[in-house]
Amino acid sequence: MESLVNFARAPAVAILHPALTWASKKKVNRLRAKLGDDNDPLLLTAINSASLRFQETNRPEPLFVDPYAGCFVSPNVKMDMRQCSHHYCLATKFIDDKLLRTVNHIDGVNQVVLLTDGMDTRPYRLSWPPSTVIFDLSPERVFRSAAEKLAGVGAKIPRNCIFLHVPMESSGILQSLRAKGFNGNRPSIWVIQGLPVMTLASFEEVLFSVSNMATNGSFFLGELPAWLAETEIGIKSSTGQWMEKLFMSNGFRVDMIGYDDIARNLGKQLAQGDYKNILFVAEQLQFSDDQMETWRREFQRVEEQGDEEGFEEL
Questions:
Q1: Any signal peptide, and if so, which residues (predicted)?
Q2: What predicted TM-score, i.e. pTM, was given to this entire model?
């Protein structure tokens, strides 16, 4: 993913949600930590998201509880305790629920691939079933910084689960995942939330890679920056049609999810303000490269076996 590698070294970062605003001065005595490199845009963006999770965790009736988000947050952070739910937090809740429903209720789905900002705490805070293998693809320097802080507060992966990191800067993402043990013949679920994306071409490369590795029936869900669709304005007639064309060209059937629908279903009020992300769920309709290769070998074996039996009869 050369375009992602270049982006990881660039001086600017694509922000996937608006900058934080804090309405009150209420402090909560939870896990806190000092900020890292103030000049690292990838790190600052990841901390921004962690701050939103920390804020949500400390609401009277939170959408979810992230007991580790506070270890990434500045000790003097100000809390916004308004009742409205932020788009990002609604998306996080939706993704959490979809992940757990899938791995707990669909046979054989024990591979989870998280495309993140490096501070995703899902491997630690969600109740994964035994034998779940979780891969995190994210910026190396952010992940290492986060891992140190998480170790410092005693965060642990659930027993009998495996957690593996693949640096976003890796020269071959497909090969790196396979080297870590990813099996393209087994079902998987993929999530993108927070992974730095600089151009439409870089996301297309991500989508192409997921399509090559995900088996038929696997899921890909998460958030995309809306400006990806805007780069083709004048070509597409709507965001929905643009999404459908993009995903279907890679073998996925896709549905866009409304943040207002999630809020309404949860009995929450959606926060005001412009949030330029697209929440989606996609299902893989075609076969992975590994599935195709397995069947090719099997077909070849059967064909050769048939030839041998025919020769013996002669």
A1: none
A2: 0.83
